[in-house]
Every structure is written in structure tokens, then in C-alpha cells.
Amino acid sequence: MVTPTLPSTVNIAAYKFVPLDDLQRRRADLKRLSASLELKGTILLSPEGINLFMAGGRESVDRLVVFLRSDWGLTDLEVKESLSSSQPFNRLLVKIKQEIIAFGIDGIEPAKFTSPKLKAAQLRQWLDEGRPVRLLDVRNEYEVDLGTFRGAERLGISHFRNFPEAVGRLPQEAKHQPVVMFCTGGIRCEKAGPLMHDLGFEEVYQLDGGILKYFEECGGEHYDGACFVFDGRVALDPQLQPTGLVTCYACQAVLNHEDLQSPKYQFGTSCPYCFRSTEQRQADRLAARNAMLRRVANPLPGSVPYDNVRKMHVARKYAGTTVMEFLSAYHAQTPHESWCDWISAGEITTGGRTVTADEIVSEGQTLTQIMPNTVEPFVNAGIDIVYEDDSLVIVNKPAPLPVHPSGRFNRNTLHHLLSQIYRPEKIRFAHRLDANTTGLIIVCRKRAIAKFIQPQFEQQQVEKTYLAKIVGSPTWDRIECTAPIGIEPTRLGGREIASSDGLGQSASTEFAVRRRFANNTTLVEARPRTGRTHQIRLHLSHLGYPIVGDTLYRQTQALINDDDDAVLAQPLCLHAWKLRFIHPESRQPVEFTASLPAWV
Q1: Which of 109, 171, 367, 471 is the most buried (most CB within 10 A)?
Q2: Active-site residue, 183 included
């Protein structure tokens, strides 16, 4: 014969809205006493009152209640009890909060005013008589799913903070009808009632003591199901006994036997109601990151005037040159006249003093340019993060958008914008794209990851596929261009095809025609086997078919039919379409593909 386990644990629930001060002392006293009595559960203290759910032995619980009622303002603290065969709480928590029940509406003070309380027996009598009342369940939807009064109205909320919006959707006639609202123990109704009064509801009652008090005094009459409780018992039947149900740790959904057998149920992580596949979690993660980007980029950070400070470090090869010679070589795209103006205005300094154009610089010296009230040119901040893990971020870069700070751009750059949403991480780019080139770029989240990815580019192990729209219709369908590319930048910051004397860097790009258009432009696929500056643009221009929109390397405008100006006015039609490389964590090949730009 098996002897049944007798209930030995006393569970109590109590709350009171009353002004409380000296909260730190109260917290310390309650925590010390509860721990000595081996009680577990949660006590919330706030300036508006106290709310608690505690459990333990009979003598310990009684001593806690006596202690609470000995304090001024809590002498009439009403306590609801139930029994269980085990401790439903895992630990003891005593917290100080802004509110003992989160609501988020200013001006609601239940200690001063709340709706009239309707005793459990009175509600049962009204329901027995069929009295016309509107029953309003103010609990969360997952609680209502477990059980509620017959005919009660559901608000469909997931958190009590959603109550104000939900009650505002009730029909206008509800304001002129008797409304009886209810919750688990009554505390939520204490705040819901005054709000409904403020919204114009004429006759609102709250069930005194909530569903648990109704069970205690009236049993399960007019009620279907069980009542959710916020402890290990999960749900109580009308006899205030645990039903044996289980809740999901993540979403609090009540789970039946079939739910527990589902592969989507992972203890402590998920259940069939909140399970998200790897793909769904990745999509959620990316959506959140991209939303952060939109906020950071609106307005563009460089569009608001600020003092821009740029530091320029003198490398060994520039040692012994003049300031003007160093600056002109350091940033060849900047006109000589601009450097002269900045030096004359005292906006370039070293060691805290201004410099002159003809003084000599030394290796390791730092020149600082201060540009007051800087407003940077407009960029396209429509960045799309297409993949993210703990090591890498893959970005589909729009255009125009510089990758790194340079020239007139500092804050309106891909680096600055991404740094804002990944701080305190120090992000590093594995490679780069021109400001006017769109497409995929790899961002490394750790130095060690960059050291693994960057050599793959340097050793030509990364498979890169670009799309380009070119001016003209080539006579070939496939071709490889191996023209070497010069090392030194031109005056405009570009590069040139090297002469045949062997100077320059070797370069190789394979091209394949994908589609020929009626206006004598062609879509080609480009696969660079080396990674030289402007390689694809230079090679196509060298072959006589410059990229549409490429004003730096355009050579033969006459190849275009129809509306020449309209075609030439397009943005640079070069798109980094695909990347294939070895992932630093899995050590397996991964491939990413960017969405196609409009011009494709």
C-alpha cells in the first residue's frame, strides 16, 4: 500500500498598496528573516506598496506574516493561502521595483482610489441569477487559455502593460454596462479599475481576492479550467490543488503531454509555441541589427556639423620631405590649393603647434588636421546586413558609401555606422570596396578572425564574382585580361595599366557575357583572380568597354546608342555579387550572394 504524500508546504500570496519608505532597510530585514526561516519565493517592494508570493513550513510562514503586520501600514495585510506537497519556488528574492505590478501609466494610485470590490459570493449570486454583467479577464492570454469564467471577455494581451491599449478597443456600449473584472489574486485589477474609470466606464467592479479567493470560497462554479499561478505549481484547480501541468521556461506557455513529446520542446530553452528554427532566429537577429542601423543613420551622423579631427602619421618613405610634399602624397585626391588654404588657416598642427608648408617631416611624426563645423557629403546609408554570427558580419553595401574614413568622409562611412551598433567590439574589414561599388563585404568581429580571413584574400583563395554593366557589346563571350596594373596612384587617385617594361603588379580577371541589351550596353560577370586596386574597372576600360557610370575610367562614350546622357548619368554599375571563402570557425567553405541592384 502506497501512503499518499500529505501537503506540508504553505503557500501565501499577499499585496497591499500603501506608501512605503526606507526600502533598502525593509529589503534587508525581510531578506534576513525569510532566509533564517528557510522561506522561498519573491517579495517586491516599491514606493507604492508590497507584493509577495512565498512558501515554506507553517510556523515559518506565520512568523513572516506576523512580522509584516507589525509594520505600520500593513496591519490589515490580507493573505491568501493554499497547500502543496513540495516547495514551488527555487530561491528567495527580495527586490525593490518602481511598481509592485508593472503598468507604466502615471497618476494611477490604488492606495488613494480603486474600483469597488465585489465579494466572491456576491459574484456567484449574480451569475446564478443570470444578472447582465460584462465579465472582463484582465490577465495575459496564456493565462486565459488555461481557464476563465464562462462568457468572460478576453483582451488578447501578452503583458499587463498592454492593458490600456486593449481596453481602449472595447465597444462604446461597454462604458454604460456593469463590468466585473478579475485576475489571479486581484492586484492587477487594483490598477485596471482606476484607468477604466478615467476612460469613462461608469460601473466597474473588481473581484475581491481574484480567482484564487473565488476558488477558496465558491469552488469552480461558473468557471471552466484551472488558474495559472506564477510558481512551480503552474496551475491550480478549483480545489486549489496543483494540476500537474508544466510551463515553458522561455514563454510561460502551459504544456500538455503532447507538447512535452515534441522535438521543439527543449527544457529551459523553447517549446512548440515559441520554438524558432536556426533560420528564424538568424532572421530575427538580422532584422534587429538592421533596425538599429536605420536608427543610427537617421539622420546621417556626418550631416550634423561637428569638429572633425584627422590624424596623419608620417611613414618612413615620407621622412625628409616637406609638409606639403607629404600631404600631397598622403592624400593625392585632395587639390594642392586646399592643403595650402588649410595650412594658412592654421588648421594643420603637430605637437600642438601649427605647421608651415616647407618644414621637414620625420618618420613617426603625426600631423593633425582640425576641420571645424564639418558637414560631410550625402551617402546612401541603405546598408543591409545579410548574415551575422559570433565571428563575422556579411554586409550588402549600397552606393555611394565609403568603407573607411578618408578625405571628406569620416562619420558618413560604413566603418563608422557599423561601429555604432557593434561597440564595444572593434570591427575590421577583411577587404574593401570602392565607395561607388555595391555588394558584399566581410566584417570581422575579432582580431584573430581578421588574421584568418585577410590572408585568404591576399593568397587569392577567396572566390569573388562581380556583375558589371559595360558600355558597348563585346565581340567575345568570354575573355581573360592579364594587363598589369601600376602601383602609384594617379592625380585623381586611380591607377593605370602598367607599361610593358615589367613595372607594375600582375593582375588577372575573367569576364563572361551574361546579357546584351538593346541600347548597346552589356551585363558581364567578372571573376578577379587577383585583388588589385580598381582591377575590374581598369581591365574593362583597357579592353575598350568601360563600366556604365565610371567617370574615372570611361574612354569611349561613342559606343552607346540611344540616350547617351541617360546611360552615362547612371551610378557605377559594378556589384560584388558573390563571395566564397573558408569560415574561420567551421573551417568549411561558405558562400554568400547579394541581392541584385536595380540596374541588373
Answers
A1: 471
A2: yes
